[in-house]
Design goal:
Layout: E1 12-15, E2 25-29, E3 34-38, H1 39-44, E4 51-53, E5 63-64, E6 70-71, H2 73-79, E7 84-88, H3 94-115, H4 121-136, H5 141-144, E8 147-151
Parallel strand pairs: 4-7
Antiparallel strand pairs: 1-2, 2-3, 5-6, 7-8
Amino acid sequence: MFGTPDCSISPVMAITIPSDPWESGFSFSDVDSEKRLSGRTLSSWRLEADLAVLQACDTRRQVTSATEDSFGLGRFLHLAGVPALLLTDWEVRTDISALFMNAFYGRLRSELQGSGNLHGYGAAYRHAVDAVRRSVGDEHPFLWAPYSMVGVLE
């Protein structure tokens, strides 16, 4: 369920296009071509996921349009039906990301096995933040505070 993905096949990168926020999304590149999944396309899908985790730099970044409406990967995933998201507010060191994700998924796994429901996201998030804080110290919020859990559970 929480296996390690094979990212060697096709690297994925989040892209932001300020001139047309609906064209922001994901870029899937390989040696021969580049394929994109735009926010416009993604938001038209009906995803049956309870949680999306975007473990990359700045995945919570949003572009604000003239009408002050925010667009970003999180919004597109919400529009596609994903109620809860784990995003980052800034670049995260690799070692910190590994520590956070191991703590998050470890706690989430135990929450799911213990109760069988998916209301353990908040507990898993708090556990992961605490694990990083214990590792690096409270005086370094740049290291322990880049992740944001957003959304709701139905």
